[in-house]
Uma2 family endonuclease
Amino acid sequence: MTAATKQEIYRHLRAFAAHFTPPAPFSPRVEISDGQIIMMMSPAGRHDLAALRIERQLQPQLPPGIVATTSGDIEEAALGQLRRPDVLVLPEAAMDTDDAISPRALLAAVEIVSPSNPENDYESKLRHYPQLGIPHYLIVDPRDGTCVHYWAITTRSGTAAYDARVPYVFGDKITIREWVIDTGELPRYDQDPQ
């Protein structure tokens, strides 16, 4: 499939997604990747709580003009990607748009693993985020209380990938650039649902 064909497919999916309302219990937000629309379950309370706590921890550590936020789509039409990270760290000026944010503006992206679709964070986004130029990617997994920080993008055979990886467990303090996230404050999903 040619790059032009991939972009045409993406444009059609993007137009469809703009007018599509997923049925409950799916989130009204969708992502597009690999020529598919990805419907996501509405986040659980602890999912959003983890994202909120990370945002609150990061914000006071960031220099003027840099923000941590739990809202904003990122888009790279040439790569057929529309994503919505759970926490974005980026220059505030990059949000001054009527469209999706350029992923190349991000300094870091944090994903809180969903119980219903963990492979989206561990496989698809891990493959695509370095191609989108996101220098730091943190996966937080409340299912088992683990995290993985990826960084150091390298390109081999025309494909970008993260070259460095450090695993953590809840309770550890994670350093990303000069910022620290205390994972001891993050909730875990219920281990014994009733």
The radius of gyration is 17 Å. Residues 43 and 114 are 7 Å apart (CA to CA). The chain has a mean pLDDT of 90. Helices lie at 3-19, 45-58, 118-128.
